Every structure is written in structure tokens, then in C-alpha cells.
């Protein structure tokens, strides 16, 4: 059973953690790996290097939107392909994060966290929340 009194604050905690994680990963790609280095990494794993900046900007802008609750649940769902792409890239490395080139458990956890946020909603103190249509009913026009 869901505690409806505290659920909005649980969603807020989830939203803050997920938003900060996306911002931190964008910063990591800008300041530590550098965009050129990240583009090179993408090329090494068989992905187009031109995706570097779109991924960085999606993580940065998306993380900010999630953090403040500006249609955050939609943003989490829209960022799922990036997390699933990271999962695909890290899957051959094994389970744990300290495996060479990082393991797959962290991207898998973040993908499930983003999905949970998308399903749960933005929670308390959101700037602009969005509601998903009820299952089995047409969306309002």
C-alpha cells in the first residue's frame, strides 16, 4: 500500500537524486572526459561520435528539468534511451562499477529509477508537474 501522505516527498527525493545524477554526469563529460574525449569514446564503442554533444546537453538540461520538477516525469521517460544506451555499452564489462570501463548495474539502476520517476510523478515542490493519462482511457485533447 502507498502512504499517500508521504508519497509526494518520496517522489521529491527520487527526483532530486535523479536530477543531480544527470547533471553530475553531464559535468563529468564536459570537465573530466571533455566533449572530444567523450566523442572518441562513443566512436570506440561503435556509436556515432556526433552524439556526444546531444547526450551531454540532454543530460544537463534534462537533469535541471528533473531537479526542479519541470515536466520531470516526461523528461525522465525521454532520457531512458540514453540510459539504455549506457546499459548496452557497459553490459560486456560485467556486473560491478569497479570493473574495467564500468559495469552494467549502475546504468540499469538509473534506467529503472527514471522509469519509476516517470510512472510515479514529480512529487512535492515541483515547478510544473504533468499527469499521465489513466491506463485504458484516451488522452485528453
UniProtKB/TrEMBL annotation:
<comment type="similarity">
    <text>Belongs to the DoxX family.</text>
</comment>
<protein>
    <submittedName>
        <fullName>DoxX family protein</fullName>
    </submittedName>
</protein>
<keyword id="KW-1003">Cell membrane</keyword>
<keyword id="KW-0812">Transmembrane</keyword>
<dbReference type="InterPro" id="IPR051907">
    <property type="entry name" value="DoxX-like_oxidoreductase"/>
</dbReference>
<feature type="transmembrane region" description="Helical">
    <location>
        <begin position="12"/>
        <end position="38"/>
    </location>
</feature>
<feature type="transmembrane region" description="Helical">
    <location>
        <begin position="108"/>
        <end position="127"/>
    </location>
</feature>
<feature type="transmembrane region" description="Helical">
    <location>
        <begin position="50"/>
        <end position="70"/>
    </location>
</feature>
<dbReference type="Pfam" id="PF07681">
    <property type="entry name" value="DoxX"/>
</dbReference>
<dbReference type="InterPro" id="IPR032808">
    <property type="entry name" value="DoxX"/>
</dbReference>
<keyword id="KW-0472">Membrane</keyword>
<feature type="transmembrane region" description="Helical">
    <location>
        <begin position="77"/>
        <end position="96"/>
    </location>
</feature>
<keyword id="KW-1133">Transmembrane helix</keyword>
Amino acid at each position: 500500500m502507498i502512504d499517500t501522505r508521504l508519497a509526494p516527498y518520496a517522489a521529491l527525493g527520487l527526483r532530486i537524486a535523479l536530477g543531480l545524477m544527470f547533471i553530475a554526469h553531464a559535468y563529468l563529460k564536459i570537465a573530466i572526459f571533455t566533449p572530444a574525449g567523450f566523442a572518441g569514446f562513443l566512436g570506440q564503442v561503435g556509436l556515432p561520435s556526433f552524439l556526444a554533444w546531444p547526450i551531454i546537453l540532454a543530460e544537463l538540461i534534462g537533469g535541471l528539468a528533473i531537479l526542479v520538477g519541470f515536466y520531470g516525469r516526461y523528461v525522465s521517460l525521454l532520457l531512458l534511451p540514453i540510459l539504455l544506451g549506457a546499459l548496452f555499452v557497459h553490459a560486456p564489462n560485467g556486473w560491478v562499477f569497479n570493473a574495467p570501463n564500468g559495469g552494467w548495474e549502475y546504468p540499469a539502476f538509473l534506467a529503472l529509477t527514471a522509469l519509476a520517476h516517470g510512472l510515479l510523478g514529480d512529487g512535492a515542490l515541483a515547478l510544473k508537474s504533468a499527469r499521465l493519462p489513466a491506463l485504458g482511457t484516451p488522452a485528453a485533447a
